[in-house]
Amino acid sequence: MKIINGLLLISFGALLVYASLGLPNRGDVDAVMHREKSPAGSQGASSYYIRNADKDANTPNMVTVILADYRGYDTLGEETVILTAGLICFLILRRKKNKS
Amino acid sequence: MIQNSPALVPLLLLAAAISIPVLAIKKTGVAYLVAAAASVFSVMISAYNMFRVWQSGPLTYHFGGWIPPIGIEYVLDPLSAFVALVVNVVALAVLCHAGGLKGREVSEKSVPYYALVLLFLCGANGIIMTGDLFNLYVFLEIFSLAGYGLIGIGEKQAPVAAFRYLIMGTVGASFYLLGLGFLYIITGSLNMADVRNILPLVQANPAVAAALSLMVIGMGIKMAIFPLHGWLPDAYTYAPSTTSALVAPIGTKVAAYVIIRILFFVFDIKFVSHTWPITDLIAWFAAIGIIYGSVMAMAQNEMKRMLAYSSVAQIGYIGLGIGLANPLGFIGAVLHILNHAFMKGALFLVAANIRKNAGHSDISRLDASYRKKLPWSMAAFTLAALSMIGLPPTAGFFSKWYLALGAIDKGNWIFLAVILISSLLNAVYFFRILEKVYLVPPPSQKAGENIPPETTKRETSLIGEEKYSLLIPAVALSVSLLLIGLWNANIVKGIIQRIIPLGM
Amino acid sequence: MTDLFLGHYAYWAIIFLLILGLYGMIFKNNLAKKLIGMTIFQVAIIMFYVASAVKWGATVPVLDPVTGAADAAKYISPLQHCLMLTAIVVGVATSGVAFSLVIAIYRRYKTLDESKLLERMKSS
Amino acid sequence: MLGYKSNLIILMVSHVVSPFIMLFALYVIFHGHYSPGGGFQGGTIMAASLLLMRLAAGREIAQLQFKSVLGTPLGSIGVLIYFGTGFAAMLSGGEFLNYRFLPFAGFTAAELRSLGILMVEIGVGLAVMAILVAIYDDLLEGYPND
User: Fold this and answer.
1) Which residues contact A16 (CB under 8 A, 6 or more apart)?
2) Is the pLDDT of residue B277 over 50?
3) Is the pLDDT score of B478 beyond 90?
4) 3-class DSSP state for residue B21?
5) Exposure check for chain A: N or C terminus, fewer CB within 10 A?
C-alpha cells in the first residue's frame, strides 16, 4: 500500500512538472492571462480590472474593487464559508448548558 | 423580481440560513420552520425556473451587472435547471421527514443543524447554476464544509468519518483549485463559456491536459468514483439519519454534475475522449466500481452501510454514462442522476424509519414483524429496491437501458456485461432484505425483549406507529420513481435531449 | 534552458511544497500531522496563484496617480490576489472545522493516532 | 483551565496594546479603498485583539469584553449586512450586488459603487471578527479537560 501511495505521489509530481513546462515564464508581460484580449477575442479580465477599477468604483485599490464589486458574489460565498465554519464548530463542540 | 429568478434559489436559501441564528436566538423551534419554508420556496422557484428555461431557452444572470469575463454569471440551461429541481425536491422530502424525526439525533443543536442544512443546499444550488469556475469552487467549499459538519454530529464514530471525509474532500477541492490555476494561466479567463471558446486555440499546451486531469480527479473524490470512494461508506453510516438521507442523494450527484459540466461544457468532447482520453479512464474505473460496490454491499450487515456501498456502485453507473461520451450514455447518466437521487433518498428515509422504530438497522435482525409495524415504509422500500435492481416499469430500468444502449453503441461488450451482472448483484443484496421482511416469521415471544417496549405498545394502530410526516416523503419519493419510469420518454425527449453537448 | 529555469523555478518549488503536503496527508499516522500536511498543501496552492500574478517591472495593484491606469503592464495582475483572499479564508475555515473534529475525536477516543483510533473504534 | 495562571505583566501589556490593535483594525478596514487592506484583514486583526485579551485575562474575564454567545449571531449579522446591501440593490431594480442601484440619492454611479464596497467591507469585517472569536471559544470549550 505504501508503495502504491508513493508511486501516486511521484506521478502527481511528474504530472505537475510536465504541466509547468507548458506555463509561460513567470513575470512574462505577454502571457495570455495578462493580455488585453484573450485568444478568442473576448475581453481579458485582468487588464480590464487594472484599467477600469478606479473609473468604475472610484477606488484606487484594484483588489478591493474586484473583491467587493466585480466578483462580489464570490466574497459573499466566502463569507458564508466562514459562517459555516463557525456554525460547525458550534454544532460539534458546544456542550449542553446544564452539563458544564 | 422575475428577471432575478435564476439567482433567487441560492440567495433565498442563504438568506434563510443566515437568519436562522438570529431568529432562533430565543426559540429553537423556529429553526426547523424556517428551513422547511425555505425549502418549499426553493422548490417552487426552481420549478418556475425550469418552466422558464423550457419555454424560452437558457437564461443567464450577471451578478453586479458585469458582463461575463469581468463578472460572475449564473447560467440556467436545461441541464442545470433540471438538476437543481431534482436536488431541491429531494431536499424538501428529506426536510419533511426531518420534521417527523423531531431532531432526535441532533437533540438541542437544531439551530446550527438546520442552518447548515440550508447552507448545504445553498452550496449545491450555487454549484449547479454557476457559470464561473472560481465561483464553483467557493460554493463547493460551502457545500462540502456543511457536509462535514452535518456528518460529524452523528454517532460516536462520526467525527472520525467526517475527518476522513474532510481530508479527502479538501484534497479534492484543492486539486480542483490547482487545476483551475493552470487553466487560468493558460486561458486568462474564469468564465466557463469564455474558457470553452479559448481552449481550442491553446489545447496543445501540456498544462491544459494536466488541468483537466486535476479537476476531474478532484471532483472524482467528491463524487466517490471507485478508487476515490474511501470516505463514503463510513460517512454515510455514522451520520444522523437526516444527514444520510440528505447527503447521499445530493452530495455525490452534484459532483457528478460538475464533472459533466467540466468534461463536456468547458472542455471539448474531442479533447476529453481522443486527445487526452480521460473519459475512457473514468468509464473503466466506474465499471470496476459498479462491481466492487455491489459485491461490498452484499457483504454488509448494516442497512445504512449496505446502502452506502450500493451508492458507490450507483455512482459507477453515472460515471460509466459520463465515460461512454456518447449521446445515449449521456442520457443514461443524467437520467440516473435523477433516478438515483430519488431512489437513495427513499431508501435512506426508510432506513431512518426503521432506525427510529427499532433502534437499529441490522439486516440480520429484520423479520416479518417489521412489515407489520411499518407496512408503508416497507412498501416504499420494496418499490425503491425494485427500481435499484432495474425492473421495467420503475425508473431504474430506463437509465440502465440507456446506459446499455450507450455501451452497445460504443461497441464495448464488457460494459454491457458489467451492467447486467451488477443488476443481478443488486437483486441479491436487496432481495436479502425483502426476503427477511416478507418471508421470515418473527421470532417467538421469547425473543420479544429484542423489540423496545415503546414499539410493542401501539401495534394495533392502523398504519403502524408511523407518523404521516415520516411516511409521506418516503412513499412519495418511491411512487414518483414509478411515475418517472412511466413518463421517462417525456423527460428524455423534453429535457435531456436538449442538453446533449455539441459534437457528441 | 536558463530562461526556462528562471521562468519556472518558483513553480517547481511550489510543486515540491504540494508534494510535501500530500505526503503528510497520506503517510502520517497522526491526525494533527495530517492537518499540517493539508495546510501546507493549501498554502502551496495560494503561492502558486500569487506567483503566477507577477509581471516584471510592475508594481502593486493600487492605482498610482503618477503612473495612471492606461497601461495594464504597469501593475501586477490583481485578479489572482483577489481569488486567493477568498481561498485563504476558505483554508482558515477548513482548518477550523478540522480542528473541531480533531478535538471531538480526542474527546471520545483519547488518541489521535490513526491505528490506535481504528482499534478503539472497533472495540467500542 | 489548563493550568492558567494570571501574569500581571502580560495582562497589563495586553490591556495597553489591545485598543491600539483595534484602532489599527478599523484603519485597515476603512482604508481598504486606498491601500492594501479591507474587511478580511481588518476583521482578522480585530479578532486578534479580542483573542489577545482572551489569552491574557482568561476566557471568563474576557467575556466582559465580548460574550461568546454573541459570536454566531454577530457573524450572521455581518453576512446579513453584505447580503442586505446586495439585496437592496436588487430591490431597487438592478441585479444582485449591483451597487449602482443602491437607494441613496445624490451620488454618481462610481461613488455609489465605492459606498457599496465600504458597506460590504464592514459586513465582512464584522463577520470575520465574530466568527474567528467564536471558533476560538468553541475549540476551547470542546477541549477535553475532564
Assistant:
1) B210, C15, C18
2) yes
3) no
4) helix
5) N
As for how many domains chain C has, the answer is: 1
Residue B464 host element (H or E): none
Mean per-residue pLDDT, D88-93: 87
Flag whether residue A74 sits within 8 Å of chain B, measured between CB atoms: yes
- Contacting chains of B (3 CB pairs or more, <8 Å) are A, C, D
Q: Do A76 and D83 count as a contact with CB atoms less than 8 A apart?
A: yes
- CA B473 to mean position of chain CA atoms: 16
CA distances from B386 to B314, B376, B390 (A): 14, 15, 6
Mark yes or no for CB contact C72/A74 under 8 Å.
Answer: no
Indicate which CATH number applies to the domain containing C43. 1.10.287.3510
pLDDT at A99: 40
Backbone angles phi and psi of B25, in degrees to 5: -70, -30
| pLDDT at residue B175, as a whole number | 94
Q: Is residue D27 part of a domain?
A: yes
Residue D109 burial class via C-beta count within 10 angstroms: exposed 0-12, middle 13-18, buried 19 and up: middle
- Residue C42 to residue B162, Cβ atoms within 8 A: no
Q: Which of C55, B217, B66, B457 is nearest to A30 (CA)?
A: C55
List the domain range (segments joined by +) for residue C7.
Answer: 2-123
The minimum CA-CA distance between B351 and chain A, rounded to whole Å, is 24
Provide, rounded to the nearest whole percent, the portion of chain D with pLDDT above 70.
93
Residue B501 pLDDT more than 60? yes
Query: What does the pLDDT look like over C71-117, one tens digit per residue?
Result: 888 888 899 999 999 999 999 999 999 999 998 898 888 888 888 88
In this complex, how many residue pairs, one in chain B and one in chain D, have their CB atoms less than 8 Å apart? 43
Nearest to B63 among D73, D80, D95 (CB): D95
ipTM metric: 0.94
Q: Do D80 and B62 touch (CB under 8 A)?
A: no
Minimum mean pLDDT range among A72-76, B83-87, B168-172, B358-362: B358-362
**H/E segment holding residue B73:** strand B73-76
B157 part of contact set with chain C, CB < 8 Å: yes
* Residue of B133, B145, B166 to mutate, interface with C, max C Cβ within 10 Å: B166
Provide the residue range defining the domain that includes D86.
8-141
Residues B227-252 have a mean pLDDT of 89
